[in-house]
Amino acid sequence: MRDTGKRGAGFYALAAFFTLFVIFLYGPMFAVITLSFQGPEGGLTFPMNGLSLRWFRHLFEEQLVGDFEGSFLRSLLLAVVVMVLTVIFSLAAGLAFRRPFRGAAIVFYLTVASLIVPSILVTLGIGLLFDQLGFEATWYASGLGAHLTWTLPFGLLIMFAVFNRFDPSYEEAARDLGASPWQVLRYVVLPIIGPSLIGVALFGFTLSFDEFARTLMTAGVHNTLPLEIFGMTTNVTTPVLYALGTVTTGVSLLIIGVSLTAITLVQRRRLRHGSDAGAGLV
After folding, report:
1. Could you tell me if 127 and 207 are in contact, meaning their C-beta atoms sit under 8 angstroms apart?
2. How many other CB atoms are found less than 10 A from the CB of residue 271?
3. Per-residue pLDDT, 44
4. What sign has the CA pseudo-torsion 56, 25, 228, 151?
5. Is the pLDDT assigned to residue 142 strictly greater than 70?
6. What radius of gyration, in Å, describes the C-alpha atoms of the chain?
7. Please, is 1 exposed, middle or buried when counting C-beta atoms within 10 Å of its C-beta (0-12, 13-18, 19+)?
8. How far is it, in rounded angstroms, from Cα 70 to Cα 236?
């Protein structure tokens, strides 16, 4: 019988690689968070010179360079709009592609093609298009369109995977009981795929909130948060920049936590309703 208690050299090599990967991935983030708590006389590098919340307070004061509050609110609003539109269009497209229609392959490949085209070319093309049409590039128009070219393909691919595993017998049973198409969607399909829709929403929000390349030439004169941070790296020489990174990281983690909580609640509610229905049949 093989001794499973001994671990080979491959296990330790894989463990070492994973450890290095985690350090490489999260080390810079922890360094930024730590340096954001520098004392009043602290700088941008280690060693730290005391501890304080001074640089967080500076974020909400008038800055000589940069507009943290305005750029943060613009990115937040843009991400919410992109999230909502991504969920709506991804769901609609997923439902539409459940049945074959003429030109389905062309529509699919045109949608996912934006994942292959370099982001800088997408933002350049959209910016030039608005300029040639005589429209002003703004974060809520051209910027919104550029972000959707990034989030919609992901949402569509997720919906494809969801509906490929979806059992249509649930819909057939509801229709046999006299449910209308809207009732089938509202009371059968949406509760089942609810966690996946939350995942699509999370993808849409996070991909938009931190998107830089596709915003570069489409945001117009008002920067979003990633553009503002990039601009501040060449001007700000205090840990206020790190404080900004800490706040944005906290917001992203909060959104992820809310999404995971919502998924858990939806799954528990579905299981509870299923058990109640089973008890009723007994």
Report:
1. no
2. 10
3. 75
4. negative
5. yes
6. 24
7. exposed
8. 17
- 245 within a domain of the structure (yes/no): no
200: domain CATH number?
1.10.3720.10
C-alpha 102/C-alpha 18 separation (Å) is 47
CA distance 110 to 120: 18
Identify whether 278 is part of a domain. no
Domain extent for 189: 67-235
Count of structural domains, the chain: 1
Q: Binning pLDDT at 50, 70 and 90, where does residue 277 land?
A: very low
264 lies in a domain? Answer: no
* C-beta separation of 220 from 138 below 8 A: yes
Is the residue at 52 inside a domain?
Answer: no
Q: Is the peptide bond before 168 cis (omega within 30 degrees of 0)?
A: no
The answer to whether residues 99 and 229 touch, using CB atoms and an 8 Å cutoff, is: no
Answer whether 226's CB lies under 8 Å from 210's CB. Answer: yes
Residue 252's contacts (CB-CB under 8 Å, 6 or more residues apart) are: 206, 209, 210
156 phi and psi, to 5 degrees? -65, -45
Nearest CA to 145 out of 118, 158, 126, 128 is that of 126
- The 8-class DSSP code of residue 211 comes to -
Longest dimension (CA), the chain: 76
Distance in angstroms (rounded) separating the CA atoms of residues 188 and 186: 6
* Predicted TM-score of the model (pTM): 0.81
The DSSP symbol for 133 reads H
Confirm if 245 and 112 have CB atoms less than 8 A apart. Answer: no
